[in-house]
Amino acid sequence: MPMMTLLAMAAVAVMATAAWLVVVSVQKVRGAPPPAFPPEEGPRRPDPALDELRLRYARGEIGREEYLQRRIDLETD
Predict the structure, then answer these.
(1) C-alpha distance from residue 20 to each of 8, 14, 54 (Å)
(2) What angle do CA 7, 11, 13 make, to 5 degrees?
(3) Distance (Å, rounded) from C-alpha 66 to C-alpha 72?
(4) Distance between CA atoms of 23 and 17, rounded to whole angstroms?
(5) How much is the pTM?
(6) Tens of pLDDT along the chain (77 residues)?
(7) How far apart are CA 1 and CA 3, in angstroms?
(8) Residue 66 CA neighbour count, 13 Å, CB half
(9) SS3 labels along the chain
(10) Residues 6 or more apart whose Cβ sits within 8 Å of residue 37
(11) pLDDT at position 70, please?
(12) Contact 33, 27 (CB under 8 A)
């Protein structure tokens, strides 16, 4: 049974690699850049000021209008 599991995992890895190669070759034919790995943008870093603002709103320390205005102010550079 363990040998069948290893063979199945190897088959899945081969199929995934083949699918990735097909996608890359099709994109090359179309002139598109290959997919980035890891993604070029990456995860956004949390903003401590926005986190604090959300906490104050959740605790009821500020109202909706004030929350929305401050959020706009913080997100606009």
Answers:
(1) 18, 10, 41
(2) 115
(3) 10
(4) 10
(5) 0.43
(6) 688 888 889 999 999 999 888 887 776 667 766 666 665 565 667 889 999 999 999 999 999 999 999 999 988 86
(7) 5
(8) 9
(9) CHHHHHHHHHHHHHHHHHHHHHHHHHHHHHCCCCCCCCCCCCCCCCCHHHHHHHHHHHCCCCCHHHHHHHHHHHHCC
(10) none
(11) 93
(12) yes
| Residues with Cβ within 8 Å of residue 53, at least 6 apart in sequence | 62, 67, 70, 71, 74
**Paired tokens of 51:** 């986190």
For tokens 């069948």, the residue is: 4
Q: What six digits make up the tokens of 15?
A: 């199929």
Joined together, the tokens standing for residue 53 give 């603002």
